[in-house]
């Protein structure tokens, strides 16, 4: 009997767990038995591993081979374990020594000729390896830049199984991480391209300053999409921790490239208006994959033609908007993906949507039903609602403010908010809890009077009151005031009256 061990990582959502892989060669009829809740892709790894080992010049065991992946209760999915399975077999067959193998985590898919192919989820896997105290992790050479984002752990890359075995036998070297600045210049659309629409431009600035959700309503071609696309340019770059968090989600989704392994700017995600619930919030069989709400984490989720989305898809947004994460239950378990994004909705006022509202041919009932698909609970979570109207021909000659100028004001407002909320653990007004706004940071009675009147008339809920207070604080921050004024509160209320 001969036993070999190797180690890899199972990635579930954006977290990883160390997996021990044992290879046991025992007496019996030749055959490979794989245990430990493997999925179909992992079952197929038996043929890939055998072909890679023999094509690299090693001998395949001529007796019974048992491959066990522990913990046995954890579902194992994908081809990430190929490299560890192959080295465990070689260790059991005494082809490589166990010294380095016992201190190294291995990630990678094998081709039949022994080449190591790239995989998804490398970043969360390496983060898990660092968390668990592993000194070294070996990844496919194509994933080396992504894995090298994690500091405090030795990351090496391999192109072939033969190169890895030479290193394990201390007869060769693996590829090290090349230090590089992965922050790249991003071509940001300029707000100066949008002329006119002063109210809508100010709403976008307000949304950027306080991380508020926004809805733009108006006829086609009026500039709703242009404004939404310019919102990320007003937001500050991601911090190092946020960049790793966002990059890990995109790594699991398989959307990273070798040329840009680190996402440093707030993402902008714009799913099609025919997207399903699964495409929007995540789904799939086995373990759920991240959807658009998670891909937009720390950035902007733009739903153009939102009234064309299905009602279930729209209602599925309510939980992530409130909680900042989405929990998905599927056959192989429950996963939680981060989903703290800024929502921007854009809609036409009616199905025909003429440039001039007086030319509308839709019956009144159809107009009400069109935007009525946006339920009250969903709209209650949208802080800023702006109705856009066609601009005059003279306005086309106006000179609009550039993104750089507006971003300076947004940065100052965010700095004021960050200093105010820092001791409470958050940085933007949109994250301020209602009880805190109504107690420790409660405005004076005259300032609150418009909100009291609106509540007494049944125009706003308690949640809407809290959201109005958050917008009022953002208005004060943009104006450089220490406290919101009654004008700030009134303006915050007017932003909720428009659809």
TrEMBL record:
SMART domains: AAA. It holds the Pfam family Mg_chelatase_C. Signal peptide: none annotated. Residues 210-392 form the AAA+ ATPase domain. GO terms for molecular function: ATP binding. InterPro entries: AAA+_ATPase, CHLI-like, Mg_chelat-rel, Mg_chelat-rel_C, Mg_chelatse_chII-like_cat_dom, P-loop_NTPase, Ribosomal_Su5_D2-typ_SF, Ribsml_uS5_D2-typ_fold_subgr. Belongs to the Mg-chelatase subunits D/I family. ComM subfamily. This is AAA+ ATPase domain-containing protein. It comes from Mycobacteroides immunogenum.
């Amino acid at each position: 009997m001969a036993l070999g061990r190797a180690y890899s990582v199972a990635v579930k959502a954006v977290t990883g767990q160390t997996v021990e892989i044992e290879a046991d060669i025992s007496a019996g009829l030749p055959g490979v038995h794989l245990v430990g809740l493997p999925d179909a892709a992992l079952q197929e790894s038996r043929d890939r591993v055998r072909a890679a080992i023999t094509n690299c010049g090693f001998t395949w065991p001529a007796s019974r081979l048992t491959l066990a992946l522990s913990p046995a209760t954890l579902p194992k999915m994908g081809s990430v374990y190929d490299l560890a399975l192959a080295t465990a077999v070689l260790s059991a067959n005494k082809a490589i020594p166990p010294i380095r193998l016992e201190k190294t985590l291995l990630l990678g898919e094998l081709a039949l000729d022994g080449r190591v192919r790239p995989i998804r989820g490398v970043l969360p896997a390496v983060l898990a390896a660092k968390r668990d105290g592993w000194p070294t992790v070996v990844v496919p050479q194509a994933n080396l830049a992504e894995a090298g984002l994690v500091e405090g752990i030795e990351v090496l890359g391999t192109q072939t199984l033969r190169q890895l075995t030479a290193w394990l036998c201390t007869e060769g070297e693996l590829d090290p991480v090349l230090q590089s600045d992965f922050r790249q210049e991003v071509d940001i659309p300029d707000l100066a391209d949008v002329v006119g629409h002063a109210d809508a431009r100010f709403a976008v600035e307000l949304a950027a300053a306080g991380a508020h959700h926004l809805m733009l309503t108006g006829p086609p071609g009026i500039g709703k999409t242009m404004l939404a696309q310019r919102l990320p340019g007003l937001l500050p770059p991601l911090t190092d921790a946020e960049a790793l968090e966002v990059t890990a989600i995109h790594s699991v989704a398989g959307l990273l490239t070798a040329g840009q392994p680190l996402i440093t700017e707030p993402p902008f995600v714009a799913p099609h208006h025919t997207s399903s619930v699964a495409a929007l919030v995540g789904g799939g069989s086995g373990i759920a994959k991240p959807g658009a709400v998670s891909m937009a984490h720390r950035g902007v989720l733009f739903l153009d033609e939102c009234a064309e989305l299905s009602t279930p898809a729209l209602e599925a947004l309510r939980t992530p908007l409130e909680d900042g994460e989405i929990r998905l239950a599927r056959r192989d378990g429950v996963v939680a993906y981060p989903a703290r994004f800024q929502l921007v909705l854009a809609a036409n006022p009616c199905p025909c949507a003429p440039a001039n509202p007086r030319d509308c041919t839709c019956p009144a009932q159809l107009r009400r039903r069109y935007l009525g698909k946006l339920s009250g609970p969903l709209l209650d979570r949208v802080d800023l609602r702006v109705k856009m109207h066609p601009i005059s021909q003279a306005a086309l000659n106006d000179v609009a403010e550039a993104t750089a100028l507006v971003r300076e004001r947004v940065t100052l407002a965010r700095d004021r908010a960050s200093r105010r909320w820092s001791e409470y653990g958050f940085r933007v007004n949109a994250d301020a809890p209602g009880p805190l706004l109504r107690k420790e940071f409660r405005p004076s009675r005259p300032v609150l009077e418009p909100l009291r009147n609106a509540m007494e008339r049944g125009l706003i809920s308690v949640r809407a009151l809290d959201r109005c207070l958050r917008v009022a604080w953002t208005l004060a921050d943009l104006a450089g005031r220490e406290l919101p004024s009654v004008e700030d509160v009134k303006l915050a209320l007017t932003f909720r009256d428009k659809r």
